[in-house]
Each structure stands twice: as C-alpha cells, then as structure tokens.
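hey m, so remember when u said the tokens were messed up on ur end? i reran from scratch. heres the input so u can diff it against urs
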Amino acid sequence: GVLVGVASKNSPEIVEQALARTDLLVRASDLFPVEASWGPKSEAVGRILRAWNIGADSVVFIDDNAMEIEEVRRAHPGIEGILFPKQDPEAVYRLGYRLRDLFGKREVREEDRIRSQSLRAAGELRKAEGASPADMESFLRDAGAVLSLQWRRPPLEPRILELINKTNQFNINGRRYSEAEWNSYTAQPEACVLVAEYSDKYGPLGKIAVLTGLRQGSRFRIDTWVMSCRAFSRRIEHHTLRDVFDRWQVAEVLVDFRPTERNHPSAEFLAPLGEPAPAGGLLITRDRFLALCPPLYHERAGESQPAEPAAI
C-alpha cells in the first residue's frame, strides 16, 4: 500500500542492471517511477510527484547525502527529508521502524495492491492530455471504461471511510470523520452513500470515489464528495453527478463546497456548473448540468450501452 519511487543520479543503464538482480528484497516491479539521470535530484523528485499526482507533504525523501536532501527540500516545500545512516546498522534498523510508523497499515486492501499498476496505466492518460482535444476524445472513447455506481447502506467496508479521510485534491470541503462520526452519519435513515468503482483496458482502479448526502424535496444536498487523484480526467465526476440527478430525480443539487488549501481540482470542476447558494455552497441545476456535461463513454456495470448526457 506504499508507493516507492527511485531518484538516482546515475546512468539509466546502470540502474536498470542493478534492479535486474534476483537477490533484491524489493522487486523492480514494485518501484515506480524510476528516475535515473544526471540532473538535479529535485527535478527527478518533481517528475515522481507528477507521476503519483500527490503533494510533496505526503512524501518522505531518503538520501545518504545531506546536500541532496536540502536541495530537494528547497524545491519541494513540505517534503520530509531523512538522511540515510549508511555507516550505522542500528540506525538503519530504527529508520525501518520510523517508516513503518509513518506508512504502516493494519491491512492491505485490493485498492492498495493495484495502486502502482494503475499509476503506470495513468501515464497513457497523461500522454493523451497533452494531445489535441480530438485525440483526447478518441482516447476516452476507446479506453473501454466500465463504471460501477452503487448506492449503499450500512454496513460499509472500511475502504470507504479511508478514502474520505485521506483524499485532498478532489474533496469538496475537506471534511474528515472519526469512525464513530461516520457510523452515526450513515445510520441516519435518510443518509445516502454512493460508491464508484472504475476499470478500463489499462487496468482496474478499484473504489475511487465516494459521495454522501440527503434528498431534500426537489433538491439533493451533497455533504461529502471525494475522488482519488488516480481517477482524474476520465469524466467520472460528471457521471457521478449525473447519477445523482438520475437516481433521485431532483431539479437541483446543492454541493457543500468549501475551499481548502489543496482542493483546487474539485473547485475547477464545480465552478462552471454551479452558482453560490445563499446559505453557502454551490447550487447546480439539472438544466445547467445537461448543457455543460461532455460525452460520457463509460459502460455502466450491468449495462450494454455507453451513457450520453442527453439520457438524463
């Protein structure tokens, strides 16, 4: 469940030979990306952060050179730098425990197991994003995407709360729940929980989005909405919002949006769709959504035809 990348000042060929050894405790396939070059370490770390699509404050950079650590720190504020104690075996042992405390998990779930695979596949999407709009449209149309959107009631698997509490970029308000608070919220008879799972021809992403809310007459109020950064640029957020309109047959959706330091992606998605509501948040009408929703090429799990926005 932990992402491990390599930033090495070295020739790519030498690094490739080293990772081809059969006596490594960590398999080469578990390392992604591997950045080997003679440029500054901060540039290599920057490419790794972009490949992972996460902020520097979620990363630990370990190096045996204090100067390299300082160079990376200055280029990527928020990253934690740790000097590798190469001359002190006991300190190396203690470092292992420190990393376990930082990243250890009681269990590794399916989404953790496929995270590295899905990040590798996302490279194809990043290439398409840099192409023309027509090429991007073609890429999405041909991706063979299958989207499952399921409205759930308790008991709910732990992955759902974990996704809410660790997601920052596509998170409408940054709200976190303790386990007791979450159980209390979902136990309300009127509470609704939507869970999205996604896969395409490049591989599965697993459970990648959660939306919670309540129906209030002709309006649906979204209290929490998060989506993993691995699922960006696939129009999953459009299809999720479409499903809210579809399932509850409402004329408008009130999104409890609150800006945070890191939720710019959710703000960028919602800005053209919604208008500020008098009591706070953003109000999205069905008509406005229909007018702005792009084509949605996902096959719904259990459905045989792709969904089109006009089908709402």
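this time it looks ok to me. The chain is about 40% helix and 25% strand. if urs says something different then somethings off w ur setup not the seq
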